[in-house]
Protein 1
Amino acid sequence: MEYLAETQILSTDNVSIEKAAEVIRRGGLVAIPTETVYGLAADARNGIAVARLFEAKGRPRFNPLIVHVPDIEAARSLAEIDDAAEKLAAAFWPGPLTLVLRRRQGSGISDLVTAGLSTLAIRVPAHTFARALLVACGRPLAAPSANRSGHVSPTTAQHVAADLSGRIDLILDGGPCEVGIESTVIDCSGGSPSILRPGGVSAKAAEEVLQRPLKQGGAGEVGSTDQQAPRSPGQLASHYAPKARLRLNVKVPEPGEALLAFGPEVPPHCGPMINLSEQGDLREAAANLFAALRALDAKGCRSIAVLAIPGEGLGEAINDRLLRAAAPRP
Ligand code: TXA
Ligand code: MG
């Protein structure tokens, strides 16, 4: 498939959904809005399409992808859903939760999607147009966040275009993402469930549904059984990296720094500033986080000072992403 110099951006309506479904069926790549962040979707059963997806993102091959399906029945046909997964799915699907499950033989999912693991990450998105596309194209969609590997996740169609225009076939513009931060990843593939990535569903809410604490998995942890790969390989220490250096939990910004603020009390500062939520609302802050990092980074400051953000609820996922954005680059 030949790429145009610039990828076409269409607003989401019935016609563009049909067009997107056609592109997917032909093995193409379509950036789609979801409630968390924009995803770059390809037919999860088409190995060539998935390979092109890795290529477009410049993503390391060992990093497995989330498969998106329209409902739990579709998930059941691809993977084994145990009691814990059943409870979590009932409570949070459709929505910002990804379950890592034991994959079924013969599901037809490309081995590139699972990066050779015996497990499969599945999510049922809540976004109207993501769901409409899943139904229209009638196949499971592999969809990582629609950014160049290592960049900040996109929460608008313009962010996607900035990273991937000319490298993919189509962008569907559904406006800014409501949640603004990626899904929570919980491993239900064996033993008691563990959280691999904090995200749009808080650990506390998941623990209430399960009525037991989640084990901590994730970042760099190596699977002890058959898989010599990180449990959630996407959780590389330096992910979501803006060009500017990030200083976290700052009380007093330095001259020349950009400021990422949170809450009503902002220290005196002259220079670029964005407040994630003047009311101190963590939901609003999550929705604004990636756009704010991009916007401040575009100002060209060497450093971004970030005020302290509380760790409860969605604050856990926000602080996780900030820590990764602040980590030293490889
Ligand atoms: O909200 C989201 O999850 C977005 C939207 C587009 O759905 N997608 C997203 O995908 O964030 P991605 O590829 O950027 O992140 C997927 C995460 C990575 O941390 C990856 O390592 C983990 O899920 N993952 C995927 N399959 C896995 C598996 N079989 N075992 C463990 N972790 C897995
Ligand atoms: Mg990502």
Protein 2
Amino acid sequence: MHLSFEFFPPKNDIGAAAFATTLRNLEALRPDFVSVTCGAGGSSTKTTYDTVQHIRNTTALHVVPHIAYIRQSFTQMTRLLGDYKNLGVQQIVALRGDPATVKNEPELPPGETYPNTVDFVLDLKTRHGFDPIVSAYPDVHPLALSPQQDLDHLKRKAEAGATHAITQFFFTADTFLRFRDKMRIAGINVALTPGILPIHNLTQVLKFATSCGAKIPEGFTSRFERHGTDQNALFEEGVAHATELCQTLRREGVEDFHFYTLNRGAMTARVCGALKLNPPS
Ligand code: FAD
């Protein structure tokens, strides 16, 4: 059983205080690693680095930074990777990144960064000596030309040196299990970890889902909407949904779980507790 938690760099002092509490509470669950997201632009590369450094300095956790190459020139990337090497980082979540996440930043001209994620993964592995973790999309990436092309692309990332993929979040266990079957049939043998998003805020999650292509099952929203504004009931529903999802996946042999915590630990901790995942020693 492997457990990992994803965080984002806190945006201000209030966020930093909340993050410190979340980190302390979730560290007690002894995750295999925690990861820290990045924006696609250089501006947030520093906040990701600072958060990674903070986690390394204040906890015993194994920490994995995300790097989106899309707006990093080769020069910036080499410096960043050197900084991470000096911190003792060994694994990187290697991503393209979304151009829209940082507004008003000019695109880099062709030739100044990697042309695609496959080349980035290859370079991280062979030239820089990192262990790249990559993304996978059970509901198909919205920009993919077809489900097959998406799968072929994942295969190429695996052939370039990725040994582990974490999925985008999804709503039903079936979505993940069908994707896992397709991967195996396609001969993609990387470890596949489901990305679990406990639902704290339905409106926000539906917005995420629309932008990243996660398909919302018919009738799904009513399970939350029926609670109106009752925050306790909504919290319990979020716990119940994520727990059911993980329980079904476990029955199908899934042993690793990556939680998108959104820097909020309580719901993730409840789900891990219900599943008896790495109880505090
Ligand atoms: P790739 O593996 O490069 O591509 C996935 C699919 O999309 C392929 O089929 C590819 O052909 C297609 N595709 C991608 N881009 C294009 C394009 N421009 N034109 C045509 N087809 C395209 N984003 C962040 O900014 N920061 C993060 O920290 C971050 N963390 C993530 C963590 C996980 C586990 C996941 C699943 C996603 C994360 N993302 C993050 C989102 C990710 O950057 C976006 O989904 C991005 O659009 C694709 O990057 P990728 O490396 O996942 O895609």
Protein 3
Amino acid sequence: MTESKIREHLKTKIFGRRMYSLDSIDSTNTHLKSLAVEGAEEGTLVITEEQTAGKGRLGRTWQTQKGMNLTFSVLLRPNISANHLGIISIAAGVAVAEAIQELCKIQAECKWPNDILFDDKKLCGILCESVISPSKFSAVIVGIGVNVNQTMFPTELNDIATSIARATGTTADRAALLAKILERLEFWYDKIQSDQTEEIIVQWKKNTTMLGKKISVNRQGAVLDGIAKEVDADGSLIFQTNGGEINIHSGDVTIIHS
Ligand code: BTN
């Protein structure tokens, strides 16, 4: 996927206009963090065909087949405080789900906090990280990994991961999909910047089936069962347990299918 192919599809104002298109890197999030500290501008995109140390949420790794998927990070410099990171990852989830639905015609759905599923299997993972540096260039890195054209997965992922190609039976145009994700992300980010975050929550809720379902939440080894009730204005999950309702800001959620 060449930079010029991506630019052919790009309709954004700022997202992806400054682009680093790489063949291989440790992690696009890690690389973009260093660029952020050096003062890179908002909307800067780092995209790669391969990561040698891809990062997942909760200290996990993210591994995908070279040249088959979308592996990228976008730099944001929001005018909101770091504890609003939740709404940014909710917005990123909505952007990815919408882009996949529109271009690939499959019912990609959002799972809190920021997975995209198809047929209950993971199509995409999102890792948002904030950068707080002494030089006051604070920033948020939105890292997105979409399984696009990979059809073979390692045994341990085979039943829990899927891809657009697996879902549709055809290969997808990665450059077109990337451009559409950036377009939708920029749209929702503008809402965050103009304090219209309710619309993002409404849209996220339209794209999920998990609310009202039984879930199990693992927070650093402590497992709690309950019901996923709502997503709050800050992007946290309102979780109904036997002991009452609590807001969860991070954790590993399993949907219990009955
Ligand atoms: C998860 O579901 O655990 C989140 C996975 C996030 C993976 C993406 S791939 C691009 C970016 N760079 C990284 O190192 N991680 C994110």
Protein 4
Amino acid sequence: MKNKQPLIILGIETSCDETAGSILKFKNGKFKIILNLVSSQIPLHRRYGGIIPEIAARAHLKNMPLIIKRISQKINLKKIDLIAVTRGPGLIISLLVGVETAKTLSYLFKKPLMGINHLEGHLAANFIGGNSKFQISNSKSFPAVSLIVSGGHTELGLMEKMGRYKKIGQTRDDAAGECFDKIAKLLNLGYPGGPAIAERVRQWKSQTTNRKPQIHLPRPMINSHDFDFSFSGLKTAVLYLVKKSSFAKATEDKNKIKNQNFIKNICTEAQQAIIDVLIYKTIKAAKKYQAKTVFLSGGVAANLELRQQMEMTAKKIIPPVDFFVPARNLCTDNAAMVAAAGALKYSRLKPDQKAKLKNTWQTIKPDPNLSL
Ligand code: KG4
Ligand code: ZN
């Protein structure tokens, strides 16, 4: 994928609770981040233990103009070659803010506009930045298996080549990130649950004794004959454990310490149960399709244990497979990944198709259920 002239892409992302804008440079199959702004709404949603769509949309409305202002201070918007915006899946009222912003900029500056699937963005994060040595133009990297794990999705896909993606498995109920979030809520650990649980696991493992969890939780669907997942049973298993224990009643100091250990124990076992299923199914898919590359992405891919264990297992069981995972800040929602997905799609278009994108602003609509 050679382009002599660099492509400057403006990415916009508002599918959930992060308002994000980014400027990316794409030249000769390599990306360079010029600016990557993410305004997180976590403090706003934390007190509710999850995302409130109405609050998210209002915060996007407030933050988006500030992000565009910061971007325009960094680069003259007339110099942009392409605007890429998340069109779905996501919360409709959140998506609308990003799409309307992108439409307005496309109309004002007469720039091509592309609607991007949020999951396509997560996957494209694998190709950004200094730590990604992935060669976009190298056909020897395919077939590839991709696992996207976020708060809303858990999806396994097969890529026969760049730009050709086929879904081969998905969650039948809760997503892996949702499972982290719901378990954290049950244990009063706050929102978002993934980092809160990961921190308890770190604390548990750094304690000198009792490093192994003394609780066993199920690995749902690990032996199913497909590539689907299910995580709602894991959350229910934790709920029963908590109900059976004296956890909720503890008031004395010595019980509080017991409680903390009980929580760390559950976190360690629950996180490992999620990781075990994700790794097992991904490696099984990679073996079946004789994958040369494994991609991991999405918010849950920020989990250090998942990253390390997936890499170790892939190298051990299916060498010489190449394993890629984006930098941790590019795993959770951001707009650089949206810009990257836009650049890759745009580069594959013919000149007349590219020209038509200047009119996308007239027709583009957010789609909360968009699938990959
Ligand atoms: O991709 P993302 O930022 O937003 C969605 O598209 O959903 O993913 C958010 C999810 C949340 O469920 C959050 O708890 C989880 O990613 N997450 C983590 C970690 N950081 C974020 N899960 C496990 N470990 C982490 N370090
Ligand atoms: Zn996401």
